[in-house]
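For practice. Supply one:
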Amino acid sequence: MTDESSDVGGEALEGELLTRLRVIEDQPLESRSVTYVQLHDELRSRLEGGDSPGARG
């Protein structure tokens, strides 16, 4: 049995990520690397934040 509310939230996050990636791809080549680094850092921070004891339910 799956929790449908978390599936919907996951779909929203996935859609947000895809939108951001499209925006990055539309930027001039010189700007993309900086923006990809920012996105990478944000995603890494979110993932590592999930490892903290306070993030677990």
